[in-house]
Amino acid sequence: MLASPGTAVDSHCPYCALQCGMSLTRTRADGAPPLEVRPRDFPTNRGGLCQKGWTSAAVLGVSDRLVTPLVRGTSGELEPTSWDVALDLVASRLAALAAEHGPEAVAVFGGGGLTNEKAYALGKFARTVLRTPNIDYNGRFCMASAAAGMNRSFGIDRGLPFPLSDVGGAQAVLLLGSNVAETMPPAVQHLAGARAAGGLVVVDPRRSATARLVGDPSTGAAERPASAQPGEGVHLAPVPGTDLAVLLGLLHVVLAEGLADRTYLDERTSGFDDVARSVAGWWPERVEAVSGVPIGELRRVARLLAAAAPVHGGAGAYVLTGRGVEQSTQGTATVTAAINLALALGLPGRVGSGYGAITGQGNGQGGREHGQKADQLPGYRKIDDPAAREHVAGVWGVDPETLPGPGMPAVQLLRSLGAPTGEQARAGGPVRPRALLVHGSNLVVSAPDASKVIGRLKSLDLLVVCDFVPSETALLADVVLPVTQWAEEEGTMTSLEGRVIRRRAVVAPPGEARSELWVLAELARRLGAPQSLAFPTDPAAVFDELARASAGGPADYSGLSHARLDADEASSGPGLFWPVPATPADGSGTQVTGVTRTSDTAGHPGTPRLFLERFATPDGRARMVAVDHVGPSDDVRPGAPIYLVTGRVLQHYQSGAQTHRVAELERLVAEPYIELHPVLGSRIGVADGARVRLTSSRGRVEATARWTDAVRPDTVFMPFHWSGIGSVNQATTDATDPISGMPEFKVCAVDLTPVPDS
Ligand code: SF4
Fold first, then answer.
1. Compositional bias (Polar residues) spans (predicted)?
2. Is residue 429 predicted with pLDDT exceeding 90?
3. Strand 715-719 to strand 642-647: parallel, antiparallel, or no bridges (unpaired)?
4. Among the four given CATH numbers 2.60.120.1440, 3.30.310.50, 2.20.25.90, 3.50.50.60, the one describing domain 9-61
5. What is the predicted pLDDT for the residue at 227?
């Protein structure tokens, strides 16, 4: 039931993983927007919001909001219809395709913005009703390499295994490939301690808004913000795709100068000798030759980090990575190198120090824990683990033998779409998906090598999109199902710190928009799911089932419920960090995921900090793994001599499906642009403000040129929030990391030419 008009309701921002705390107030009695949004004091944002958060209520009332199901008619246009007609059509076509080609002919693509409850229900629906292994989600584009690296080294993946507020007390922070000053501005306040101590190190080929916080003289004193103090840190601007070499060089210096924490390495890690051998050849001169990072700067940063480490009496240090270094064919290796450096300095598993990955999407953390990932079951369990299959099948009331195995990671899944043709058809081989259900993703804009993805989506026998606005992907669909969005629904999200928080309904959904939970329940019924295979539509009931399914897994939510989260919040508790196991009946406590817990009659208090006593590996030690720098898959060469890096702007979020519909944001940044250095612009004859064409071996993009010395002369930057001719993902590569399956969005080789006057 909705709160009465004028009553402020605590909830969270619909956008990024910071999940800033908001207070939402509806004024109308009929349940419709508008909604007043106010920031509140929550640990991640401490009363701050960015422009996206302040204007988030506008997304609820957009003029082209989807309010009725749409089905592509004989005219070729999407036409309004009833839920019964749309759902009957979807169910009958899914059933027919599965009957003809097998269950693998149906695939599901989820999203990192879905609530925990929806992500859980989607995974269960795919594996029990559709019985397809082919489910993955857009988190593969954003978190997979950090997850793979953390799982390998620590035995568990929680983006930040500590509260974000801990970072505020650190003396040094090494921030690699994360532009928080633009993507999540309220997070900048957590860098205050490092900035004050002169210990903020930003690694980014571009002098981003975050790099400008540093105001380092070596990277442009003219850019120093008025508020900045001298010596707030260092900006390293390596050649795109060489961050891994920089990390190997930093560890080389730490070891060569005797700065490592030898006691910690002996007591808490394994694999050090291999790693030490692997970095021995990465002397600073070689790192400079590969990355362009000056020898002196490399040494300065290694010493600065070491001085902040507890072993040298420092106040603490963090190594943090973001998409800039993770969206790479060597993303997992880069994360591993970052973890190796942190381990050598004795940081992870210590209060006030550590390694973490800054998750981007709103529920990027929870989205990968509850079963919509190709290789996972709920509780962040591995789908090929027999014990995990047994447990989850028991909760679902199905035979574990009927659960499919691991599916294809997102890029591979997208490459496989559509009926086989030519040689593929003659050769036979695995069944290719001919139907795709998309929930919470706008693949046309956000997938790499996007023009090929568009072609494959068009080749499908059936494309069904659940969304609340007609995204570019929805406009290609055969059936569009209108669903609820943030302030219209109850549920939970999990922040970048692993903090489980409540999302609350404050306004009524418009028209006939319904929750995906209801859509999945209706499809399950139409597809003949037995009554014993329940798909509850009440988010609290779904959460209770999710909690049971997660019990004993790495991401254990079994001690949580909506009621407990509500009660916790009512007593000023800002969410609970997983794992939160149910207190054992015998009161003996449990030991899971590297943290010893004791029984607690009030319920388990949650686990803000992981690894304080042991890592979640079988022997309790963090694994150091030797890695090496290879370079990007699509390196510069004659014909493609310029590096392209992509990223976000403050005013837009992901594919822009929401933020392009907010007038205040669109007014500020309405069009795509390409940043290039004046030296490059002059050389190729592209003036500031002129139209410029960017070409890769995949596709062609055009946008307005913006001259700036914030990019290297060998590199251009383009944000990825636009479609059509301004869609940079037409040019990016779909080459993937061999371990995580994450695509290399962040670097590829392009050519740049003026657009001739028409
Ligand atoms: Fe906070 Fe992110 Fe929302 Fe901005 S977009 S208000 S940083 S949660």
1. 588-601
2. no
3. parallel
4. 2.20.25.90
5. 44
Question: Which residue's alpha carbon is at the smallest distance from atom 7 of ligand 1?
Answer: 184
Q: What is the pLDDT of residue 418?
A: 82
Cβ–ligand 1 distance for 22 under 6 Å, the answer no
Which tokens go with 564?
Answer: 């407990």
DSSP state of 465: E
Q: Is the CB of 648 under 6 A from ligand 1?
A: no
Ligand 1 centroid to 20 CA: how many Å? 6
On whether the CB atoms of residues 208 and 710 are closer than 8 A, the answer is yes
> Of 122, 71, 56, which Cα lies nearest the Cα of 474?
71
18 Cα to the center of ligand 1, angstroms: 6
C-alpha span between 166 and 756 (Å, rounded): 53
- Residue 137's pLDDT is 95
What ipTM did this prediction achieve?
Answer: 1.00
- Cβ pair 699, 449 in contact under 8 A: yes
Give the chain's largest Cα–Cα span: 78
Pocket lining: 20 vs ligand 1, CB cutoff 6 Å: yes
Rounded to 10°, the helix 284-291/295-308 angle is 120
Q: Which of 16, 361, 659 to mutate to test the pocket of ligand 1 (most atoms within 8 A of CB)?
A: 16
For the domain spanning 70-142+364-532, the CATH number is 3.40.50.740
pLDDT digits (tens, 9 = 90+) for 674-689: 999 999 999 999 999 9
Q: Please answer whether residues 215 and 224 qualify as being in contact, where contact means their C-beta atoms are separated by less than 8 angstroms.
A: yes
CATH number of 144-357: 3.40.228.10
Q: How far apart are CA 744 and CA 547, in angstroms?
A: 34
Is the omega angle on the peptide bond into residue 34 within 30 degrees of 0, that is, cis?
yes
Which DSSP string corresponds to 140-192?
A: GGTTHHHHHHHHHHHSS--SSSS-HHHHTT-SEEEEES--HHHHSGGGGGGGH
At residue 255, the 3 state secondary structure works out as helix
| Percent residues over pLDDT 90 in the chain | 90
> pTM of this prediction?
0.94
Catalogue the E-assigned strands of 376-478. 376-377, 381-382, 435-439, 462-467
Q: Is 59 in the pocket of ligand 1 (CB under 6 A)?
A: no
- Cβ(116) to ligand 1 under 6 A? no
pLDDT of residue 219: 41
pLDDT, residue 515, reads 97
Topology classification of domain 642-754? Barwin-like endoglucanases (2.40.40)
pLDDT, mean of residues 46-61? 96
Query: Rounded distance, CA 39 to CA 49, Å?
Result: 6
pLDDT tens digits, residue range 233-249? 999 999 999 999 999 99
Name the closest-CA residue to atom 6, ligand 1. Answer: 53
Whether residue 52 has its Cβ less than 6 Å from ligand 1? yes
The tokens describing 325, both together, are 């270094």
Q: Do β-strands 491-494 and 78-80 pair in parallel, antiparallel, or remain unpaired?
A: unpaired
Q: Is the distance from the beta carbon of residue 16 to the nearest atom of ligand 1 less than 6 Å?
A: yes
Whether 652 lines ligand 1, by a CB cut-off of 6 Å, is no
pLDDT at residue 404, as a whole number: 97
If pLDDT is split at 50, 70 and 90, which confidence band does 220 have?
very low
d(CA 146, CA 317): 19
**Residue 343 β-bridge partners:** none
The pLDDT-based confidence of 593 (bands split at 50, 70, 90) is very low
Q: Please state the domain extents for the chain.
A: 9-61, 70-142+364-532, 144-357, 642-754
Q: Which of 347, 360, 401 is nearest to 138 (CA)?
A: 360
- As a whole number, the mean pLDDT across the chain is 93
